[in-house]
Design a protein that fits this description.
It is a single chain. This protein has 352 residues and is an alpha/beta fold. It has one domain: Rossmann fold (3-Layer(aba) Sandwich). The chain contains 10 helices and 11 strands. Strands 1-2-11-10-3-4-6-5-9 form a 9-stranded mixed β-sheet, sandwiched between helices. A two-stranded antiparallel sheet has the order 7-8. Strand 10, helix 8 and strand 11 form a beta-alpha-beta unit. Helix 2 packs parallel to helix 3, helix 7 crosses helix 8 and helix 8 packs parallel to helix 9. It binds S-adenosylmethionine. S-adenosylmethionine (SAM) binds next to helix 2 and strand 11.
Amino acid sequence: MAERKNTDFDRPGGYAMPKGATQVHRQAAKAMIDADVRLYGDSVEVHQPRQIKNPAPKYQAVDPDTRVYVGDCRDVLPNLPDKGKVDLIFADPPFNWDVPYDQWHDGMPRAEYERFTFDWLDACIDALSPRGSLWVNIPDDTAAEAVLHLKRRGVTMINWCIWHFRFGQHRDSSFILSKSHVLYFVKDPDNRIWNSNEILEPSDRAAIYADPRTMAKETNKGLRVPMDVWYGQYWGRIQGNNKERRHGHHNQIPEVYLERIIRACSNEGDLVLDPFLGSGTTCTVARAIGRRSIGVEYSPVNAESAWDRVINVGMVRMDAALGRSSAIVQPRRGKREKGGTLFLAAASSGEE
Ligand SMILES: C[S@@+](CC[C@H](N)C(=O)[O-])C[C@H]1O[C@@H](n2cnc3c(N)ncnc32)[C@H](O)[C@@H]1O
């Protein structure tokens, strides 16, 4: 008897939502503004930003305009002359994991930490231009609260990505931590800066299966927008003797991660902002690829080191991951296509 396809379970599109994920998020964004969502951090008083008239950057350069401010981002952002004009924000906050940052105390009571998170998220939303996007790098224990807060503020989720890294700290009491959440929200899903062509990579159809259908496409033959789980060579945590490493900094993000976001969500000359600058990754990459940028950093020592990186070191892995396949199996025998650089082959060089 011929096999009957089970259309209840094997829906065309598999895990794709029939209406489209963005459509569903868009509807949720409207509904959530009126929802009575309460979170633990709501029990703590909202931070009242200090009034700073014409805040002065501690460091500044031109072509493209690059500025670093020293202070608490909850105070700096509301006073910026660029408020409401920022095209892209990338935020990688302290996780409240007792990291010995130079100045910032990374061990608040939980409710205070949630309030802190909501306050800087609010400052970021207010700083964004109408077409702007907000990206947040956040761990398991705060991702849910951050998403709920952003949703109740009425901004729309476009993607909930995962940054997957290897070499997490060993433990045997539970699975080893190997990811961070990368949230992508916008003010207006119908009118946002999005350059998919800037970040394409070879599809698995091209890189593994040499499927002729992908090469027969009118445009972008064999290419696709990357998936929402990010990994591969140069995508690992920056530590040890990695050539990107800036000593004295914690949780440095790889350049390829920022390059993907900045190329996808801003154009040359646009304004990019990082409220937790750390070692300066965001401004370094933004400046290298022609974006204006603002960094805010609480510690004067970190800010000085970040500025040294932005101006004197610069980006060291420009385009290193662009256009590389993220396939995790070797090409099928006899189907190795020319031009598709496989992550697997490259990964044998040892640098994650
Ligand atoms: C996780 S690190 C950022 C790392 C950065 N993404 C990188 O690639 O180097 C967080 C940074 O935020 C700074 N910071 C903490 N609280 C802050 C605040 N309220 N305002 C501004 N900076 C803050 C810390 O000093 C630290 O350098």
